[in-house]
Known about the structure:
The complex is a heterodimer. Chain A is an alpha/beta fold. Helix content of chain A is 52%, strand content 14%. Chain A has helices at 26-39, 54-58, 69-91, 95-101, 105-120, 136-149, 153-167, 182-198, 227-252, 270-279; strands at residues 15-19, 44-48, 63-66, 125-129, 172-178, 206-211, 257-261, 281-283. By secondary structure, chain B is of the alpha/beta class. A nine-stranded mixed β-sheet of chain B has the order 1-9-8-7-2-6-3-5-4, with helices on both faces. The mean pLDDT of chain B is 80.
Amino acid sequence: MPPGDSLNFVTAARVTIVAGKGGVGKTTVTAVLARAAADRGLRVAVVELDGKPTLDRLLPGIEVLHLDAAQALADYLDERGLAPITRRLRSSGVIDVVASASPGIDDLVVLGKVKQLERSGRYDAIVVDGPAAGHAITFLTSPAGLRAAARGGPIASQADDVMAMLADPARSQVVLVTLPEATPVNEVIETAYALEDRVGVNLGPVVVNAIDDGPLLDATAAAEGSALRAAAEFRNSRRQLHAAECERLADALALPQVHLPLVPGAHLDDEAVRHLVATALAARP
Amino acid sequence: MSALSLDALLGDARVVVCCGSGGVGKTTTAAALGLEAARRGRRAVVITIDPAKRLADALGVPGGLGNEPIRLTVDTHAGDTDAASGELWAMMLDTASTFDGLVRGQAASPDQAERILANGFYRNIASSLSGTQEYMAAERLHALHHDDRFDMVIVDTPPSRNALDFLDAPSTLSRFLEHPVFKLMMLPARRGLKVLNIASQPLLRSIGKVVGGDVLADAIAFFQAFAGMETGFRQRADDVQALLRSPSTRFVLIASPRDDTIDEARYFAARLSASALPVTAVIVNRCTPLFGAPFTERPADSLTGALHDNLAELHGTARREREQAAELLADVATHATAGTVFVPTLPGDVHDLGGLEAVRLALCADSPDRSAQ
C-alpha cells in the first residue's frame, strides 16, 4: 500500500481517541491523524484536554476544541440546575472535591462532551488528544466504574451513553501511541491488554512514533576510532534497537502497526505534520 | 555552551528537586545524581514516583521499590579509588499509604485515625484527588529530610503539570478546609447536630443530587472525623514550604530537545520564579551525540559516502538541537548557577546499573570541576 494509505484507518470510526504515556508524541500523532482525515475530505474536529495551544499551531485550517475537565464538570452541573452553586464551587477548587467524591466524574463528563460532538452530525472525524500523564486506562474506564456505583439518575444515563459510543466500532476507536524503546513498548502492551479486558473499546492500529528505520550502515568501511565510524555505529545501534522493539511489540500485540519516521531536530510545524502524513508506513505484525 | 558544575549542584545540597515533563529521563537522571552524590560520600535517598517501576529495574532491585527506602548495593568507587564511600537509597512513593501515615501522625487518638481511614470519601481522596500525589511527595520529602539515615534527598516529581503544586501555600488540602462548604460540613462536630440535618441544607442537598446521597454522607462523616486536625496539616504544609525555600534546596529542570518538553521546562521555570525559587541547573537529555564535524567534501565512493552523509546528518541535527534548546532556555539558563548540560542519547536503553553509571558519566563529562581534577 502506498505510504499515505496507511492512515486510512482514521475513517473507520467517527471518534478516534489517541492515548499513550507522556513524551511518546501523542500530540504529534493527533495532528497527523487530523491532517490525514482532512486530506480525505472529512469535516474534522480535534479535541484537546491540556489547555495547550500546540495543536492550533500544527493544524492551520482545522478546528481545535479545547475541553477543560473542570469546565466540563461545571457545565454538566449547570445543565442539571445547579448553576447557583457551581461558580462558588469552582472559585474555591471545591469542584475537585466533587470530582474526587465520585472518582472519574470529570473524565466521564469530558467523554460526554465528545459524545455530544459525535452526535451533533457536524463532524465526520473527531480526533481526541487523550489526557496527559498516562491515565488512558482510568479515563476510559470511568464510565464503567461510575455506572456500577450509580444506581440511577443523570450519571448513570450519561455513563450508559458514553459506554455505548465506546463499544461501537463505527463510532469510536482508540489508537495507542508508543516509541520504539523498551519502556514505552512495555507500557503500551500493558495498556492494550488492560483496555481490552476492562473497557471493551475498539483498538485501532498502534502508532510507533519517531522510528529511525533506514538500512544499517557498513561502519567497518571507516577507520576505527574515527568520527565516521562512531557515528555509523551509533546510528546502527539505534536502528537495531528500533527494529527489535517493533518486532517485540508485534509478537506481544496482534494489532497492525503504523510507523512514523523520526523527524530530526526539535521543531514540529504544519509542514512537518504534512511530511509525516505522506511518509507514514503500515507494518503488519 | 554546555557545562554542569556538580559541585555547585550537589556540593552542600540537602534537597534536590527534579522537574520536567514525562519521557525526558527524569527518573534516570534523579538516580544518576544520587549515584554521583554517593560517590561524593553522601548518604542520598532518591524518591521516585514511577508507575512503570523502571527505576527498580535499573537499580537491580529484585522485589521492586516500596514506600520504605532500601539501600542499594552500588559500587560507589566504580574503579575510581578517589571516590568516597557514600550510600544510595531509593524508594517509590505510595501516595495512599503516605497519606494514611500522615493521618495517623496527626490524629488526636487512634480512634480518630481509624474513623478517617475507614471512610469511603477519604479513600477516594487518598487515591484520586488531584494534587494528592504532589502533596504526599512533599510530605515524604519532609520526613526523609529529618531522617538521620540520609543527608540528601533527591525528588523525582510526578510527570504532570501540577508537579509543583506543593509550592502553593496554602496547600490544596488547607484550601478545602477553609471553604464555607466544609465549614458547614464540620458544623455537626461542633454543635452536636446529626449528619442527616446537615445533608438537608439546600447547598449540600444539591451536591448530593449529583454525586449521590451515600457519597455525600461519607464526605460529611469524613470532615466531622477530621475536626481538630486542620492545624496540624497546615503546620506541616508550612514546614514543607520552609524546607523548599532553604538555601540548601536545589531545583533542576530536565527537558529533551523537543518543543513540547522545552515548553514544559519553561513553564516549570516560570512557576518556580513566581514562588521566588531559583533554578540551579538545566539538563537537556536525549540529545543527538556530537561525533565531530564531517569532512568538507563528500567522498565519491558510495560506501564511505553513506557514512559521510550519516555523520553530516547527525552533526547537523545535534547542532540544531543544542542551538534551539539553548535559545529557548536562554532566559532560564542565565540564572542557573550550576549551568546547563546537554546529555547525549545512549545507544541502548538504561535498564541496569551499568546504564545508570553511563548516565552519571555523561552528566560528569561536561563538568568543569571534574575535568579540572
